[in-house]
Structure formats: structure tokens, C-alpha cells
Amino acid sequence: MYKLFAILLTFVMLFTACATPAGTPTGAAADGQSSDVIFAVPDEIQAIDMHQITFANLMHSLTYVPLVNMDPTNTYPVPSIASDIYVSADGKTMIFTIPEGLYFSDGAAVTPEAIVASYIRYIDVSIFGNDFDPVDVIEAVDNTVVFHLGESAPFLWAVMVSVYSGVNNVGATNLTDDLDAVSFGPYYVESWVPGQHVILRRNEGFRSYDPTVTNHGPAFPERITVRFISDDFTRVNELLSGNVDFISSVPAANLAELQAAPNIRIAQTYQAGCSFMTLNTHDPILSDHNVRLAIARAVNRAEISAAQDNTIVPAYGFINHAMIGFSETSQQEMNTLWAHDLNEANALLDASGWTDRDGDIRVRNGERLSLELLIANDHSAQRNAGPLIQHQLRQIGIEARITELLTPAIRDNVRAGDYQMAVRRFSWADADMLINLFHTDSGFYSNPAIDPLLEQARSIVDGAERAAAYGEVQRMLFDSLPAVPLFYEIMFSAHLDTLDGVAFSSTGNFMINDVFNRR
What phi and psi values does residue 146 have, to the nearest 5 degrees? Predict the structure, then answer.
């Protein structure tokens, strides 16, 4: 079953928010005329129609907006297309008020009926359509769109704040001709030259109710070009030469050069998820809790991050601030629980009888403390971390024998139990992802004490209470130690200093609302 592991969620007992869009763009930038903007991205789009793709491109954040967004703390939903949001106390009814004055790129009005039709098409057409399985009925009632659920499902916000569930004018969007896609967003596609670029034109009928932006009317730049430049060197040089205004996916090798350039600004977003080292609790050596805890104590995350020029962030826990379900209180506790401590690591191994030595490797009853470590050779941050983790474990007398495999092969080995230690990663902006990693039904790990906590946390309606519940889940994961969190990644973009208002939503969507080009 496909899942849209990319964005975010959290239910609320009752949340209502409203921003008043202006008919004319607001803010300081409105005093002048913004120049056109040229973006450069590494990957070409699969299609224009969001309902027909398997991965999104920055372009889709310019041509679609979600029904709602998340607040800056990823705790509660806030308006976007909808002007008001209501969720019942039991989480089974979600009501979104759709204001008048919103228009698709072809000039047709965005109505509750049009939004319902778009969601039904998404469920029928999209490869991710089954993400809406918890929804029994979607209906238009007066000026609202109503979702009826059989049970509370806060994890739906992860899909609803994604551009994947952006709204199409179904009557004007042709499944057989992608160029006919008619969407509601700040821009629409005027032309697409495959292998080269997409030209976008401003949708004059766009309005936003998102309270996190200043400009609630049409975007400032009239025209946007999105160029497809897969070569990192070329993409960076086009920015340095002033031929483009913004590039995504800044390579680590060029980051320092761009940071030093006086006319370049760096923006960053964070991986919603982390890389972690899973430990086979059924292995004869790793079944000993002391050995697993010693491994956890030996890992020096700050050292791993510094070795990669701090393009990754130490992960003290499996949930970070880019995810719904994050709790700052829980994070402070995790920082202590997962602390690096070589003295404790050595004492734990001594207590388990690994006291003899073969050179610098520990030995017990003639057996060397030697473990295989699976590392993905198709993921640079993990591959680069491997030798350093190997060195850190050797400091406490553990030999880590690195075997490099492709990511799918590592996943299959872990599911089959054919491993000792393996570095894996996940990217999904909701803490509910943990149920796919550590619940018995996941096939990766089984602990009857954790299963009910994961099941309960995913259905808690209130965002703050849900985050606290995931704090308890993380505490139990530390106690049982099926895995050790390592790091999460920073995604860098760069732009000329003449491009003002560059911003991203808390879920990582590019926000064009306040962008103004002074060139």
C-alpha cells in the first residue's frame, strides 16, 4: 500500500482561524512592480496534474496550494484555501469554510462542490488515493466542505497540507492531456518545453487565507520560469552568474562557496524524519540490552555532523521539529537519554563480560565482539557516516564490519531479520511514521508494550496531547533500544539577494506569496 510520506498533521478539539485577503497585493513590495523570477531545479516534473504524479517538484508549490496548512509549530492546522476550520471533539467531523472570490486559473469559481469533486478525483486517480481511506464521505454543505470519518484520524493532516491534494477544476482537467490541468494556485502553466523549462503565469483569481503570510492576494511576479538543470555545477554557476534568481538542492560541495558570495542568500529546510541505526534484538550478541545501550552511548552525533560540515543535524530522538507530533519538552528529555558517554559504554560492556581483548577488540569466552553494519551506498550522508560510526564503536572495543548495499536491499534484510546493525532513514512529517517502523504489524520490530501506545497516539485529536503521547513512545523506544537515532538532514536552497520574501511553510512547501524580485 502506498503512503504519502512527505508532509504533516495534527487534529484539534476546536480551532478556528481567519485571515482577510485583500483584493490588491499588500505589503511593502506592493509599492513597486516585481520583476519576473527564474527558478532552477534539478528534476523535471513528471506531470502538471498533481493527481497523476508520484513525486512533487517545486513548480507544484507554485501552481497548487492545499486546503489548509500547519501553524509554525506543526501543532494545529491553519487556513489556506479554507477561511475557517472546525474539527469535532471526537475527531470524526472536519468542516472547512470555503469563501467566495476564489477562482481557478481558467476563471471558474472555486466552490465547495468543486473542491469535493477534486478530492473524489484524487482518491480515484492518485497513486496516493488510499491515504483517504479513513474518510467515509466528503460532501459540500452550503459554503463548507465536510469530511465524515469513521474514527478520528489526525494523520490525515499530513496529506491535506500537501500540494498532492491540491485542487483541480475537474470539469476542465483532462486525464489524457496533462496540459489541460486547471488548478487553483498562485500560478498556472502557460507552456512546458520538456527537458528545458516550464513557463508560469500569475493567477489573478488567487487569494489565500493563510495567516502566516503578509500578501493574501495574487502573487507579485507576473511570470515565473522554472528551468530544469540536473547538473549541480551548472545550476550553481547559473546562480552565481545571475542567470537565475533561485536554485534548489544546493550540493554540499558548493555550500561554502555560495555562503561566501556577497550577493547570495542561503535558505534551508529540514528533513522531516531521521537516519537511524536499527539493532537486531534477536541477534545472540545484540539481544543483550547492555550491548545495545553501549552502542547508543558510543555514538557521537556531534562528531558525525561536524565531519559532514554540519549539513546534517544530530538526532536525539526519532521525532524532530519538522514533524507533527514534536514536543520541545520531550526533546529536552531525549537530549539527556541519548547522550554520548564513553565511560558508561565501556562499563556496560564490562558488566556483560566482554572484558578480554584481541588487540583493541573485546572478547568474551573466545568470541570477538564483532558485528556487521549495513550502510546504504546510494545515500551520501549515510555512506559518509559509516566509517565514523565504525571508528566510534571501535573506541569501546566493538568491531563494526561495514557492508554497503542499496537502500531497498537493506530494508528487505531488516524485514527478514537477516542483519545485526543497519542504518536506515525515513522522511515523513508526522510522528505516526513510527507505527510503520516499530509496531508489530510493521514486520521490522515487535514489542507488545509499545504497540498500544503507537495505536493510541495516532488517534489523539488534540495536537499538544498527541505530541505528549509520542514523547512517551520515544521514552519506551529508548528503554527497549531497537534502534539508535543518528541525524537528520538539512536541505539547502540559494537565491540572489534581490529576491525578497523567500519562505517555506512548516511542512516544507515553498511559499511564493511574499516573494518580490527587485532586479
Answer: -115, 130
